[in-house]
Amino acid sequence: MSRIRLAKVTTPSNPPAGSGELYYSSSLVPPGPAFVDESGVVLRLGGLTTKDYRLIRVVTLTGSGTYTPTTGAQAFYAEGVGAGGQGGGAASPSANQACVGGGGGAGAYSAVWVAALAASYAYVCGVGGSTSVGGATGQGGTDTTLGAVLTAKGGLGGVNLATGVTVTDVAGGLGGAAASGIGDHKAQGNAGGYGKRYSGTQATSGDGAPGFFGGGAPGRVVQGAGVAGLPYGAGGSGAVAYNAGGAANGAAGSAGVIRIWEFA
């Protein structure tokens, strides 16, 4: 059986004109086979970059805690989504009047490539807005963070419309602000849908905005609280109240999430 054995060497100086050299580099990280041409251009065999990676694990983080990269991981790509905002609430209307809330905004998306790993990273996945009651603007969702390398902003809550009978609408919450996030790639969260009142007896609450992974909540037309956003990062829909039927709360936005792709 024939074979070629290459001794590990530093990257050689430029070969003579019209030639190239195959060698086993101790200069590349990690060491590996390479080719250098007469101009000194180095081609790492097996890829054109200074390092070729292979995927070893995908991790999904929820809640909060400490993320420790897998032993042997050399880099990771992390994606994060902020939590969704709560839908706008509906105050208790007088007889023959209606009140409606706009939908909650979705959390923003951020992603980052990290090639110099720390031993561990504290993380927090945002909490969906949920605590505003009755005729109030919905609570905003909180941010999702991974150490100092990634931040995805939470969406804002939907607005509440005063009771009445006139045809009008009310804004949904804005999506999480991409510009305020941290990461290599960032995207604005979707805004919640407008709530609409058509008369004192007809209205439609605003849809909760879908997040990066979907999960938007539909608005409602009957008396009651909104519909909660589904995981992850989606807004909750607004509430509807009619004809002295009592106040109703906007629905909760869904929590944020982090997904990490580990490479060796």
N-end to C-end Cα span: 32 Å
Query: What is the strand tally?
Result: 18
As a whole number of angstroms, the C-alpha radius of gyration is: 27 Å
The computed structural class is mainly beta
In percent, how helical is the residue content? under 10%
Gross morphology is rod-shaped
Number of DSSP helical runs: 0
Q: What is the average per-residue confidence, as pLDDT, rounded to a whole number?
A: 91
Write down the oligomeric state: single chain
Measured by DSSP, the beta-strand proportion falls in 25-35%
Biggest sheet: strands side by side, in what order? 5-18-7-9-14
Question: How many separate structural domains?
Answer: 2
Uncertain regions spanning at least 5 consecutive residues = none
Spell the H/E element sequence: EEEEEEEEEEEEEEEEEE
Characterize the largest beta sheet: strand count, sense, and whether it forms a barrel. 5 strands, antiparallel
Task: Characterize the structure shown.
This protein is mainly beta and 264 residues long. The protein folds into two domains: 8-44, no CATH class; 53-264, no CATH class. It is 0% helix and 28% strand. The protein contains no helices and 18 strands. It has strands at residues 8-9, 20-25, 32-37, 42-44, 55-61, 64-67, 75-81, 98-100, 109-114, 121-124, 144-146, 150-152, 168-170, 185-187, 195-197, 203-204, 240-242, 257-263. The strands form five sheets. Strands 5-18-7-9-14 form a five-stranded antiparallel β-sheet, with no helix packed on it. Strand 3 (32-37) and strand 4 (42-44) form a beta hairpin. It is rod-shaped, with a radius of gyration of 27 Å. The model has no long low-confidence stretch (mean pLDDT 91).
